[in-house]
Design a protein that fits this description.
Elements (H helix, E strand, L loop, with lengths): L2 H23 L1
Length: about 25
């Protein structure tokens, strides 16, 4: 995978983690 692909994956994981955290808080 190209570095840009890895960055995109990390960004997606970060967003997914944030959504999961919000659901847990709610």
């Amino acid at each position: 995978a190209a570095p840009s692909d890895l960055v995109a994956i990390l960004e997606a994981l970060k967003e997914a983690g944030a959504l999961r955290a919000e659901l847990i808080i709610l």
